[in-house]
Fold this protein.
Amino acid sequence: MRLNLAAEPQSDVAHRADEAFAALGYAGNVYAKAPPRIDREWSAWIDVRGTGFNRNDAVAATHGDQVNVTGGLGYKLTPDLLVGLVTGYEHFNYPVASLSGKLSGDGGTVGAYAAYRLAPHWRIDGAFGWSDIAYAASAGTAAGSFTGSRWLATGALSGDYRYGLFMLEPSVRIYALWESENAYTDSLGTLQAARNFSEGRIATGGKVTYPWQATSGLLVSPYVGLYGDYRFSTDSALPVGIAFVGIKDGWSERVTTGLTMKSGLAGPSLSLGAELGGLGAGYDLWSANARVNWPF
């Protein structure tokens, strides 16, 4: 659920930052109550999101849930330039059946974001955040706790063009995170080494939307998108002699589709979307999202 205290819609940069974790392989978002547009210099917002995750394979079957509460304050320096600060809190719990254990924890985040309109049809945006995380882990009879820190960054160049009744939205986006976890000694007296890892994705492609009037007062806008994704990662604690299972580095293709149904120019709307990634890379990554906007 998202509440915008300045009565402005969610900006592109805020939406891109909120999608950063989703782009790295997590589930999508659900929003509610997006207010109507009012042009103001200051904008304050609060976002509450629940995420579920399920990975079903023979080596590392994992499931769990996560809750994020995020808030920010933005300011328009000029009509084409927006800057802002963001802070947040997260709590997560991920059992791992194959290890008879789980990973849980919580932490806080601080960061900043900005967006600039380069031309009437082109925008550039970026955001970064730093998180301090407290972890609790267990596997079998061993348990322990440790701390970690994470950098998360996202940036995009995006455009929008009308061609007849079609809306074309080309874009290039990058999402990346870097995390460092401290060494610790578990309850069995075993020293667990420090770990450093990173994950990222560069996506380039575009989306085509076709808005049409279904009935009097109801606007329906279906869309399709095609993207090329390049994933890259590092990990100082990869297991030896175990076949890789999961999301691989390198190129893959991703297709998206969905539609938005809106009642009137300023009425409520419902958006449904889905995507399939990993095409050509030997794995499938499905995700779906739903968004309800209700001006008040």
